[in-house]
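One such shown below:

_____
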Amino acid sequence: MEVRAVAKYQRVSPRKARLVVDLIKGKSVEEALSLLQHLQKGSAPMISRVLRSAAANAENNFNLDLGDMYVKRALADEGPRMKRVWMRGRGRRDTKLHRTAHITIVVDETTIEGRRDRQRAPQASGRPSSVPQASGRKAR
């Protein structure tokens, strides 16, 4: 059963929040919380709060066990941008964009039969193993 939690209008750039959100996708909730606790990023406490909220929603509303939960989806979408005036020299001014993010985390329960692998299998990079040398043209 999918359970979600959302934190809207968080005062962090969505681009910076996505760096942290991408780290916890597919991990167990306990492992993700441990990772976020030791991460030196400004958005880590915000994302940790949302993850704890999603886990609490699952435990209290649906009687799911914390040990059986994993992060199914984690998103950091763009929220509204606030424009502020930034005074510069010689009477000029610029505008600063303060970006906000909507952080969404969906947790799900793993079952014994269909237990998901927490370690992702190594994927082929799409590049050939040996790069052929260019032929036909001489280097200048």
The domain at 3-109 is CATH 3.90.470.10 (Ribosomal Protein L22; Chain A). Strands lie at 3-10, 69-78, 82-87, 93-98, 101-109. The chain has one domain: 3-109.
